[in-house]
Every structure is written in structure tokens, then in C-alpha cells.
User: What shape does this take?
Amino acid sequence: MKYIEIEADYFRNFIEGGNSLEKFYLYLESKKKDGIWGDDVEIQALSEIYNRPIEIYVYSSKPIRTFHESTFYENEPIRLSYHGRSHYNSV
Assistant: This one.
């Protein structure tokens, strides 16, 4: 969450109500709590922090979504499966 805070000018655009600094910081505080799951914003941040592409799979052998898209990957992608409307597992 610290990385998202440092890169606030970028990530605020992808958080509902993020144009308000108050709502942006409320979002960050809520995501720091135990048991709160991450979503696209946090996945994008992880991709950038670790310089690894992240692929999301749903009932298919082809990813439905790729974060940190590039034609050259220095690192192996992190592969996640998406279940239901809010749950990810590592593949």
C-alpha cells in the first residue's frame, strides 16, 4: 500500500472517488486491514514492484487479463486464477 501511496498521482485515477484525497487515503487505510482482499489496483502495483507480468485466468488456458504487458519478459509471470466475483488463487 505504501507503493500505491507513493504513486498516488497514477493510482488515484483507478480508485472510485480517488480524485478526493480524503477518499483515496480512506481506501488505502481500508486495504491495510487484515482480511481485506486486493483487486486490480493492488495487482497492478505488485506487477510494477516486482517487475513481473501477472496473468489472470478464468476457466481457460489463455489469460483474460495481463498486467505489465510487454513483448519481452525478464521474469516469469505470476499466474492467478479468478473465482467468483472476488477471489484469486495462485496457479
Observations:
- The first strand starts at residue 54 and ends at 57.
- The first helix runs from residue 2 to 6.
- The chain has four helices and four strands.
- The radius of gyration is 14 Å.
